[in-house]
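Hey, can you fold this one?
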Amino acid sequence: DGAETAKNKFVFVLAVSSMHASLAPFQVAKAEGLRTNVLYDVGELFELGIQLAYLLLLLALIGAGTFFVIRQVLVRRELDLSAKQLQEQVRSGDGSATQLFELGAVMLRRKLYPAATKYLLEAIEKWDGEDQDLAQVYNALGVAYVRDGKTEKAIAQFENAVKLQPGYVTAWNNLGDAYEKTDDLKLALQAFQEVVLLDPNNKVARPRRDALKEKVDMYKGVAVRSKKK
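Sure. Predicted structure:
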């Protein structure tokens, strides 16, 4: 009986072990399936997050673009209204030199350069205010000439502006730019050097001055070598 009992126990243990062995692959497969599902869910959430980020970015860009367009329309409308009011005053004969200057500046912003030139010249002829303020009119006239492709005429106006107001940094910058457009590098360099003297941290003039100095020095070296030949 004892031997029979021991035999039965051995058979039971063997059966249980076999059952565990047969269930092990199923449990592993189930665990792998769960892990795959978890990974799939995480990947799906990650992809959804990226799509949401792109959507938010797109909406932000559309919003910014719409704001820019609306702002441009409002600015344009404001300029049109200002031009209309100023033109009515000028045509009635009551327009002052200052109003002519303002009208010229409005036309300049509207990119109507011949009209801007006309009103700015009239403002200069009628000017009875301070010379420092007149310098701004000359500078605006110079800008109108540059944008209309008349750089030589622009140079004369910028020179008038800095004569009337020697510390006029914007006019000096414009003068340097105009000289560079006509390939007069030495005078352009002088203009930008003047700006740096007046405003040492000027972000426009400093790099332009340094670049022009290199060009002038380089061409100077070429000229010296050609003379030796």
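The chain has a mean pLDDT of 77. Let me know if you want another pass with a different chain boundary.
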